[in-house]
Amino acid sequence: MTETLAVSDLWVDYRTKSAWASAVRGVNLSVGAGEVIGVVGESGSGKSSLALAIIKLLPANARARGKVDVLGKDIVGLPSKDAHLYRGAGMTMIFQEPMTSLNPVMRVSDQLSEAVVSRREHHKLEMFRSDSVSVPRGPDPRFSMGPERRAPPSKEAVEALRQVRISDPERTAAKYPHELSGGERQRVMIAMSFLLRPRLLVADEPTTALDVTTQAQVLSLLLKLSRDEGTSIIFVSHDILVVGQVAQRVAVMYAGEVVELGPTEAVLHNPLHPYTRGLIGSIPGGFKGEKRIEQIPGSPPDIMKLPSGCKFNPRCKFAMDRCRVEETALKEMEKDHFVACHLY
Ligand SMILES: Nc1ncnc2c1ncn2[C@@H]1O[C@H](COP(=O)(O)OP(=O)(O)OP(=O)(O)O)[C@@H](O)[C@H]1O
Ligand SMILES: [Mg+2]
Q: Of 342, 338, 270, whose CA–CA distance to 29 is shortest?
């Protein structure tokens, strides 16, 4: 069976004034159909760079090396101008601030209707089954309307808003994004995902800006999407507890590398990497009342000045001579549970 996503030896580099610096360093990751995988790590660990490389939305000063196969097709080599053909029904993304993805001058209903059209086009083209990807796709004149034209919200759009538990879907559909709360905007983004039925959804800190109750509702909607539509989800968060609520597997990133990967239960209850233990320890009160482990001292390294050997060694209380010179690689310690650490 083809995996929804297979990332192999992926590097993401940014051009800075003086040189290239790597924010993602040799990441390997695969995601099966309907699987929810969490990516967790401190600020600057490369989570968003990985997410953007997967969805092919890296900024202009970045380059990706390696392979990102989405349903068996490598998108790293795909020209950026063709990338939109893979987004939509193939893959889609939701960000921390949904305003960046919503069109400010289009009513919610029109944006949702566009998602329906986009899905139909993708399914007609069978993007991920045929080899021809260079089909021109201009804006659909029916839906490229300015703010003054107003079509009644389609049944499908209203139904999608109902699905994400927006209380007055008809009224909300007639609004513009700026007239909605942050939580409502995020729900609209998820409603759009329900309409697109993508094979892969990349969610980068989708609940970070939301209050705890709204966060819980958005998380359960994402789970519903993966269950009902078989959508694979990459869920990015700095919060390992949030990730633990939704993901079946967790990848822990440090300085651009995956340092631990395994089933959520194993990673949270039997963390192997000193960094993962530190992340869990730095949750106030510790995980589920377990003995509180001290916080990780220091801060993550600047990608321009990475230490040699294990990138975590300057902050690790178990660091040995070997850790300062020899790079680490993932090793399987128990079934499907990998760690990159010289302690093992
Ligand atoms: N456009 C860019 N140009 C240069 N460096 C960048 C750019 N974007 C990100 N970086 C650098 O790449 C590294 C990884 O950043 P990234 O945004 O991927 O981390 P992150 O894990 O998503 O962090 P956060 O939790 O703060 O969102 C950081 O050192 C960051 O400064
Ligand atoms: Mg980020």
A: 338
Question: 299: left (phi > 0), else alpha (psi -120 to 50), else beta?
Answer: beta
Ligand 1 centroid–CA 193 distance in Å is 26
Q: Give the separation between CA 64 and CA 12, rounded to whole angstroms.
A: 5
CB atoms within 5 A of ion ligand 2 belong to 48
What is the C-alpha separation between 227 and 36, in angstroms, rounded? 10
For 276, the enclosing helix (H) or strand (E) is helix 274-281
User: What residue ranges do the domains of the chain occupy?
Assistant: 108-197, 269-339
Q: Using only C-alpha atoms, what is the Rg of the chain?
A: 21
What 8-state DSSP symbol labels residue 149? -
Characterize the bridge pairing of strands 257-263 and 249-254. antiparallel
Q: Which residues of the chain have pLDDT under 50?
A: 127-148
Distance CA 13, CA 50 (A): 11
Q: Which pLDDT tens digit goes with each residue over 120-170?
A: 776 655 544 444 343 334 444 444 444 445 566 788 889 889 988 888 999
Please state, as a whole number, how many other Cβ atoms lie within 10 Å of the Cβ of residue 278. Answer: 21
Q: With a threshold of 0.85, does the pTM exceed it? A: yes
Structure letter (DSSP) for residue 19: S
25 C-beta closer than 6 A to ligand 1: no
Give the span between the Cα atoms of 24 and 294, in whole angstroms. Answer: 27
Q: Are 13 and 63 in contact (CB under 8 A)?
A: yes
300 lines ligand 1 (CB under 6 A): no
Residue 82 and residue 73: Cα distance in Å, rounded? 13
